[in-house]
Design brief:
Helix content: over 70%
Order of helices and strands: HHHHHHHHHHH
Strand content: under 5%
Length: 243
């Protein structure tokens, strides 16, 4: 059986088990209710507006993650003796729970768009730095030396030699960063927000509307799957050897 068929079978088994073992009327609504009552709720203007706001915040956070993460990773990956301690610092940051620090983001950036985008970007930038740094450190030094000997400055050598050599690894790191960016934005909206999908979801949970809450969660998951599939296709494309 192929991998896509196995995935489809696993999803089907999960849905059947969910329908059989979750009674109607419980907080975790069965799929039949989610796909009727819940999906109807997604068509409401307020729900679509919340999903749209979260999408904009995610895209902004992901753009910041890509620029800062790749840039910092390139510089640190080719920094010689500075690379090992930098790797250790970012490895510790990667395991650090960031939720307790969200009040600082609100204090620095205020409530709303800026604090939520910053919180999402901080979640995503660390794995991108780590992945880019590790890939950049493995690039053959003779290529960089040859570029420098032909007059290329440090920045040009990084962008014209090192970066093209590690594009597949960078895209792979961005896949992890994208997922964590979305997680950070949603966490910020769930904690302190007046709009967005997290705010909508918090209201549904407070009012014990399980079917609608499950539908919003599925919509967010579907968006995350779309982003992951697009980045996976890009990673596969840039990993393909030139013909």
């Amino acid at each position: 059986m192929s991998v896509p068929a196995l995935r489809a079978a696993a999803i089907a088994v999960l849905l059947v088990g969910w329908q059989i073992f979750v009674p109607d009327g419980s907080y975790l609504a069965p799929p039949s209710k989610v796909f009727t009552t819940g999906l109807g709720y997604l068509a409401h203007a307020d729900t679509l507006g919340g999903l749209g706001v979260t999408t904009v915040r995610f895209l902004a956070a992901f753009a910041i993650t890509a620029v800062l993460g790749v840039g910092i990773g390139l510089v640190l990956g080719r920094s010689g003796h500075l690379m090992p301690p930098a790797r250790d610092v970012f490895s510790v940051l990667y395991t650090l729970p960031l939720v307790p620090f969200y009040p600082l983001f609100v204090l620095w950036f205020g409530l709303g768009f800026r604090s939520e985008v910053a919180f999402g970007a901080v979640h995503g930038v660390v794995p991108v730095v780590l992945g880019t740094m590790a890939a950049a450190s493995r690039v053959d030094g003779t290529l960089v030396t040859a570029a420098r000997s032909m007059g290329a400055g440090r920045r040009r050598a990084l962008t014209m030699v090192v970066l093209p050599a590690i594009v597949p690894d960078v895209v792979g790191a961005l896949r992890v960063g994208a997922a964590l960016c979305l997680l950070g934005v949603l966490l910020a909206e769930l904690m302190v927000s007046v709009d967005g999908a997290g705010h909508v979801l918090a209201g549904l949970i407070a009012n014990l509307r399980g079917a609608e809450a499950d539908a919003v969660i599925l919509a967010v998951c579907a968006g995350a799957v779309v982003v992951n599939v697009l980045l996976a296709a890009l990673e596969q494309r840039v990993s393909r050897p030139a013909s």
